[in-house]
């Protein structure tokens, strides 16, 4: 959640300055921290024993497809507005982190209850 | 239609054993026919952005925003409390019919509203820092940002997880109850935040 909040904050910061010049320092910092938290989440998740990875991926991959389309449409809008250079790079990377993060959250929420029917049967 | 039994939630063992199982209808987590409509809206949105004409952009922003706001308000402040007081079988049937549609509707209206809204702001000059409404515009970014974190981080995962749970041969009612509580409380908070959006947007429009 913190990683998602940081990437959204970065998006707000960029949008508040665009289409004019954007001082990229804060945006890069927010992106870097968000990405680090995302990597940390992935590492922590990979260490969970008996995690329902098949369920996680079966849900997350479709969610990833949907959010890749959404991120692509947002990026297209910014390209149409002739956003270029460092701002475009930061925007693109932010959208990549965003598009990975939400499917992870969806997949994790589903997978953590993967054996709930076994508990009911027991 | 394939029906599947669901165990009775949160009753004493004797009462649970005596209570008749209730049926739930078969459903698709992501309605495939709905994907066609989503694709139509997406293509139309891309055409609107590419054309860069004010009317189609304003149409998507206003229509999408109105749909988003009305759904959030109605779901959060009206339907949510009603769902909480429904019987379990009624709640399950309502959930299996409503939630799959929400999986498609909400991302579509939100994407259309925000993408078109940004383009409208560029055309009208509202997003420029020199605009007298710039402060209100940034306020709207913050409100939308908070809503996005709640919706994407809590609401949507709960939505999908409830539907996946209901698809199981023996859904766990405690899991469904916990996730539906999260869904309903988030929907309530988002409904209240939509009031802030209405204030900001009408302020900008009347400036």
Secondary structure topology:
The complex is a heterodimer of chains A (122) and B (207).
Chain A (H helix, E strand, L loop, with lengths): L1 H16 L6 H23 L6 H28 L4 H27 L4 H6 L1
Helix pairs in contact in A: 1-2, 1-4, 2-4, 3-4
Chain B lengths: L3 E3 L6 H6 L3 E3 L7 H20 L2 H32 L2 H37 L9 H34 L5 H33 L2
Antiparallel strand pairs in B: 1-2
List keywords for this structure.
heterodimer; A: 122 residues; mainly alpha; B: 207 residues; two-stranded antiparallel ribbon; 6 helices; 2 strands; 3% strand; disordered N terminus
Q: Nutshell version of this structure?
A:
The complex is a heterodimer of chains A (122) and B (207). Chain A has 122 residues and is an all-alpha fold. Chain A has helices at 2-17, 24-46, 53-80, 85-111, 116-121.
Give a written overview of the molecule.
The complex is a heterodimer of chains A (122) and B (207). Helices cover 82% and strands 0% of the residues of chain A. Chain A has helices at residues 2-17, 24-46, 53-80, 85-111, 116-121. With 122 residues, chain A is an all-alpha fold. The radius of gyration of chain A is 17 Å and the shape is elongated. Chain A contains five helices and no strands. Chain A has one domain (2-121). The mean pLDDT of chain A is 88. By secondary structure, chain B is an all-alpha fold. Chain B has one domain (51-120, 131-205). Helices cover 78% and strands 3% of the residues of chain B. Chain B has six helices and two strands; from the N terminus they run E-H-E-H-H-H-H-H. Chain B has helices at 13-18, 32-51, 54-85, 88-124, 134-167, 173-205; strands at residues 4-6, 22-24. In chain B, helix 5 packs antiparallel against helix 6. Chain B is globular and about 60 Å long. Chain B starts with a strand and ends with a helix. The chains are: A mainly alpha (122), B mainly alpha (207).
Order of H and E elements of chain A: HHHHH
Q: Tell me the strand percentage band of chain B.
A: under 5%
Number of alpha- plus pi-helical segments of chain B = 6
Describe the largest sheet of chain B. 2 strands, antiparallel
Biggest interface, CB < 8 A: A-B, 38 and 44 residues
Query: Average pLDDT value of chain A?
Result: 88
Oligomer: heterodimer
Largest sheet of chain A: none
Q: Percent of residues of chain A in beta strands?
A: under 5%
* Domains of chain B (count): 1
Total helical segments of chain A = 5
CA-atom Rg of chain B in angstroms: 20 Å
Report strand order across the widest sheet of chain B: 1-2
Contiguous low-pLDDT stretches of chain A (5 residues minimum) are: none
**Helix/strand class of chain A:** mainly alpha
What class, by secondary structure content of chain B? mainly alpha
Shape of chain A: elongated
Count of individual beta strands of chain A = 0
Element-level helix/strand string of chain B: EHEHHHHH
Ranges of chain B with pLDDT <50 over ≥5 residues?
Answer: 1-20
